[in-house]
């Protein structure tokens, strides 16, 4: 590897890359500074005027779940330094950075991990053929001929490869197809989370950045959706630079690469990754410097906006009226001929898979709560309610249980329309809908938790508790149906705008864009930071098509397509005291209801344990999903201890009603809440001495619990951050041994 980089990335070329990167960054950051003032004005105006969106019926979790491990287990990783496969202990903490340890012992001893992978911008490939095709396409003239050795050989039939167009690739394999499916669902969840790297609550910096990206690309005649709008600002900015720099380097260096096709492919991957790292560091420094400058100037800008808000609004409306008079005739013809006829078909293509996914979310939530209710009946009341609710509270972050919901979006296609409207990929819409599904699932679960916690304060009996659970479930489902309809309608409107607006701007650009500079004189110089001609022009174009989009979504709701509610159906103050309940402290089910089980005779911790030790164990990282083979009731593929687990909603309701009426003794074994891993029974004092130590994911080494926290993922798009034992930043060096194997 050292020879490859020193040969093709010498000092002169590195200097050229730095200069080229600096030029692209300077041009982009000029757009960003312009958009920052506009976004600040829009944010402050929104605070004053509001938007009139329907009030959500479900509560949302203000304190997110943390200190949880989403998944843990072993997988094989290909080591590029020695070209061998090694078994790694891997886990995914709540921040969704895949952490790789040498082995489980290294994790127990808190040895720094070998790597932390931030998967933003990556794709998961489940076959070598897919990977070899992408690698072959990335470097023209290197497609492997039949019979030649491929760039990579997998020892099993179940690989998982993380592929990125610019950064390094990661190679894993599993022993069984079931393991492959599990890890694929988990890694896809990591990608989905990391891709959504710009915080939702960023009301100024986030919109300014995404608008600047769009404006910059449109200045290069690049319209439509962009597949690499993934990760945080620095990652996206690095992707933007590589979009221009990558093809230039490829054209220059590809003819100079030596060796067989697979060797040239390997060399290009190494070069591209090294360039990406250089670009990332330069982009990070430049972006942070500009952001700091803007944040220093923000108080003065806010003072100007507060003082002159009315004048700025008047000036902007005057500018918009002039632009509207100029472009409206052309825009209306363009909308009527090229957009309006296709809106219903685009909307239908979006509605079908999205609504199926939200229906699946509803069904999964119903089944999990009903299973829990059955288990409460069979196990004698609230004794294990804390354990069940602790698992239910994490349902939205359970990759495997949510997978059936996410999969509903996979069939999304815009056949024929994708080329017409220059939509490079539907992945951006799939991912956005899946994020909405997870949010709505968590809102439903949290609302159920809050209402049940209030009910438990009344000290209900077992029968009263089960009836209350069923009543609360139906109450939450009604709220979910309303919020689901509102969220989907908003998603459809945003998706239709995201598809049609770039198309319209591209169509109108030849006749309208060159005339825009003459409108600049209509803006007062004092307001020039808050009103831009280009943004106002786009708003006018948006208004020409918005009425058709709103009408299409409204008609779908009037016809009750896919269980959408009409806009006139508003649930104002249907539960006026509900939002007051969410103001309290977060509910700790394990602490309140999972403590000493005096009635059952099995203490959850040894009686000699101190209060502080109990607290440490209660807060200890617990896997939501554990990669262990265990048969559990109500788990697909296992034989339940009671009669066959029902699947349909009707069967579940019938069985629940039957169990409430019948006073039958509990079954011989416990019925758990459909978890994917079996929690071992709490040890007694006698059995603890002879039993093996608890898994480190459940119980840390003595005295280490308070210090043991999951490592935070690197925000680098390259994906890997190798920790140094002394805590210093990693230094990437390259060497080559006598056999010519590159080592990093």
TrEMBL record:
Residues 706-715 have a biased composition (Basic and acidic residues). Its main location: other. Keywords: Cell junction, Cytoplasm, Lipoprotein, Membrane, Myristate, Phosphoprotein. InterPro entries: Niban-like, Niban_1/2/3_dom, PH-like_dom_sf, PH_domain. Residues 591-744 are annotated as: Disordered. Residues 732-744 have a biased composition (Polar residues). The keyword Lipoprotein applies. One of its GO terms (cellular component) is adherens junction. Residues 693-703 have a biased composition (Pro residues). Belongs to the Niban family. This is Protein Niban 2. It comes from Mustela putorius furo (European domestic ferret).
């Amino acid at each position: 590897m050292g020879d490859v980089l020193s040969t093709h990335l010498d000092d002169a070329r590195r200097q050229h890359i730095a200069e080229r990167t600096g030029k692209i960054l300077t041009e982009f950051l000029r757009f960003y500074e312009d958009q920052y003032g506009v976004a600040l004005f829009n944010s402050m105006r929104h605070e004053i005027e509001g938007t009139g969106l329907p009030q959500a019926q479900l509560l949302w979790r203000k304190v997110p779940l943390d200190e949880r491990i989403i998944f843990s287990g072993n997988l094989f990783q290909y080591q590029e330094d020695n070209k061998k496969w090694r078994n790694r202990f891997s886990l995914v903490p709540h921040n969704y950075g895949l952490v790789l340890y040498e082995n489980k012992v290294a994790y127990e001893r808190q040895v720094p991990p070998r790597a932390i992978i931030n998967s933003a911008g990556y794709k998961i490939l489940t076959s070598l053929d897919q990977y070899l095709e992408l690698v072959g396409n990335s470097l023209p003239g290197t497609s492997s001929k039949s019979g030649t050795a491929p760039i990579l050989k997998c020892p099993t039939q179940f690989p998982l490869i993380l592929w990125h167009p610019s950064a390094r690739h990661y190679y894993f394999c599993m022993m069984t197809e079931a393991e492959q499916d599990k890890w694929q669902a988990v890694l896809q969840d990591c990608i989905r989370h990391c891709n959504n790297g710009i915080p939702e609550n960023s009301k100024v910096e986030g919109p300014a950045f995404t608008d600047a990206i769009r404006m910059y690309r449109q200045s290069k005649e690049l319209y439509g959706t962009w597949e690499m709008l993934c990760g945080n600002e620095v990652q996206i900015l690095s992707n933007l630079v590589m979009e221009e720099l990558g093809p230039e380097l490829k054209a220059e260096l590809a003819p100079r690469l030596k060796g067989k096709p697979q060797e040239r492919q390997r060399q290009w991957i190494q070069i591209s990754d090294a360039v990406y790292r250089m670009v990332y560091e330069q982009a990070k420094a430049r972006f942070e410097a500009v952001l700091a400058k803007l944040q220093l100037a923000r108080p003065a800008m806010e003072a100007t906006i507060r003082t002159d808000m009315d004048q700025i609004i008047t000036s902007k409306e005057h500018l918009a009226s002039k632009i509207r008079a100029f472009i409206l005739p052309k825009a209306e013809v363009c909308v009527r001929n090229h957009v309006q006829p296709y809106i219903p078909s685009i909307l239908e293509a979006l509605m079908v898979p999205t609504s199926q996914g939200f229906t699946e979310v509803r069904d999964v939530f119903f089944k999990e709560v009903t299973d829990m209710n059955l288990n409460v009946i069979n196990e004698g009341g609230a004794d294990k309610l804390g354990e069940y609710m602790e698992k239910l509270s994490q349902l939205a972050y359970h990759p495997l249980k949510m997978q059936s919901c996410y999969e509903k979006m996979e069939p999304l296609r815009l056949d024929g329309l994708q080329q017409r409207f220059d939509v490079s990929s539907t992945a951006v819409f799939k991912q956005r809908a899946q994020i909405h599904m997870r949010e709505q699932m968590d809102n439903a679960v949290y609302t159920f938790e809050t209402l049940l916690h209030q009910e438990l304060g009344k000290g209900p009996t077992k029968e009263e508790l089960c009836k209350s659970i069923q009543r609360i479930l139906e109450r939450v489902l009604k709220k979910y149906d309303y919020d689901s309809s509102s969220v989907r309608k908003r998603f459809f409107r945003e998706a239709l705008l995201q598809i049609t607006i770039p198309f319209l701007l591209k169509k109108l650009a030849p006749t309208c864009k060159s005339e825009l500079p003459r409108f600049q004189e209509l803006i007062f110089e004092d307001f020039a930071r808050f009103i831009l001609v280009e943004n106002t022009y786009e708003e006018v174009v948006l208004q020409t098509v918005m009425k058709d989009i709103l009408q299409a979504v409204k008609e779908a709701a009037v016809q009750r397509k896919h269980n959408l509610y009409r806009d006139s159906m508003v649930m104002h103050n249907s539960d006026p005291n509900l939002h007051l309940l969410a103001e309290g402290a977060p509910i700790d089910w394990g602490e309140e209801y999972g403590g000493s089980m005096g009635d059952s005779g099995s203490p959850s911790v040894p009686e000699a344990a101190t209060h502080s030790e109990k607290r440490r164990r209660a807060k200890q990282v617990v896997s939501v999903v554990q990669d262990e083979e265990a048969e559990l009731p109500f788990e697909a593929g296992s034989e339940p201890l009671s009669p066959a687990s029902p699947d349909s909603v009707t069967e579940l309701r019938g069985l629940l009603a039957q169990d409430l009426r019948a006073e039958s003794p509990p079954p011989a074994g416990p019925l758990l809440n459909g978890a994917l891993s079996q929690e071992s029974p709490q040890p007694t004092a006698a059995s603890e001495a002879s039993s093996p130590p608890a898994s480190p994911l459940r119980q840390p080494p003595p005295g280490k619990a308070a210090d043991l926290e999951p490592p935070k993922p690197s925000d680098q798009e390259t994906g890997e951050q190798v920790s140094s034992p002394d805590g210093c930043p990693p230094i990437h060096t390259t060497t080559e041994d006598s056999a010519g194997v590159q080592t990093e």
